[in-house]
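User: Hi! I'm working on a homework problem where we have to compare a predicted structure to a textbook description. Could you give me the structure for the chain below?
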Amino acid sequence: MVRTLYTKLAVILTLLFGLVALLFVLLLSQATERYQQEVAQKLNATLARDIVSERLLFRDGGIDNAALEQLFHVLMVINPRVELYLLDTEGRILAFSAPPGKVLRELVDLAPVQRFLSGDYIPPLRGDDPRSLERHKVFSAAPIDVDGRRVGYLYVILAGEQYDSVTQMLADSYVIKRNVLLSLVVVVFALLAGLLLFALLTRRLRQLMRAVEDFQLAGFSGVLPPGRRNGDEIERLTCSINAMAERIAGQVQRLQETDSQRRELVANVSHDLRTPLASLQGYLETLRIKGDDLGREEKLHYLEVAHRHCRHLGRLVEELFDLARLDANEVQPALEPFSLPELVQDVVHKFELRAGQREVTLLACYDADLPFVVGDIALIERVMDNLIENALRHTPAGGSVTVAVQPVGETLAVQVIDTGSGIPAEDLPYIFERFYQSDKMRTRGGAGLGLAIARRIVELHGRTIRAASSSGRGTTFAFDLPVQMAG
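Assistant: Happy to help. Predicted structure tokens:
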């Protein structure tokens, strides 16, 4: 059985209406019973008094049996629902009109009788039913006085045994049966209307559910039905699900792209590791096999090449390790004020020899008396190392690399500007991705991790790194750091 929301609502509504219908029938039956008793008591309130005033029930200090028998016979013919009981002043039953063996009480409580005679009561007022030790019924009562002396009471039960059952009362009343039937029809109609209303209200939920299921089966792609932010709860829920679906679809797409990049990463790492390893292994194998036949200069050449490949491997492994630590948030910047121009000058001085070997002019450009900035000096030095090394690698002989520092608002901006070959427009959005290298970039060495490390370090400082380039016109990398506030 499919436990849908509509099914649950339908079951709950059916049970609720069934309970309401049952309570209505019970309340109707009780109200009808009390109403009939109230009417019977009001209409027959003087019945006992009229009988006592017209008939002498006591004669010569005792009961007039002949008068009682005649009275019982007349009343049974006229109104068989009425039962007469002759009580003494203590409430003991002296005579009655009921069949023999039906009367179970010997004594009737006179407290309700006294209340009835005083008139201080709200009908229906019930008294003891002599035919039962538990039931109470409406009655009429009158005192019996002889020669100014009270000798007893006439106690008249107005609803006899044949109306003890509420079911019997309902069965014998056409009006009550019709009203109950009409009420049940109204309840059934209201139930059907409620079920139809629930079906209409849950229809959009079912449509939304099917759309979400289709979205899931389609691999979290596709379009969900639109909603309105100012609509009802279902439409606002639709808007929220749409926003969530768009985010999920974007995340799925990014995961797919990341997975593709991971596969490419494995291929790139394999390539970048395999090439120097193969060269290193080849030169060392040559030295091991032909070491005795090689001259001193050849041995030094082979060792120098092997050493260069070892440094390349060491740098690649170090970059992988650093990037892993940065991604795992194991590196937190130790923020402190420092002089950015001095750091630029030191880094430029460090690369001057390499720039001279490549016949590239390396310049530092900044104004005097620039304020201190706040950052991790070691990490910022690593950023500039990577940017300058990248610029030197892509700048041909005769070109230049300039590291400029200039104030921009409450920050100092650092720019690394080269006159190299530039970056193609289709590659520019991806240059900060791990191991991303275009074919042109790959031929010039490097593992494609330097820029990814630089971006992650700048992000740890709460800043962003930017790149601007056009093919054949050089590239500019820029980032900024906040100035130390006075005081």
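For your comparison, note the following. Residues 79 and 158 are 9 Å apart (CA to CA). Residues 336-482 form a domain with the Heat Shock Protein 90 fold (CATH 3.30.565.10). Good luck with the assignment!
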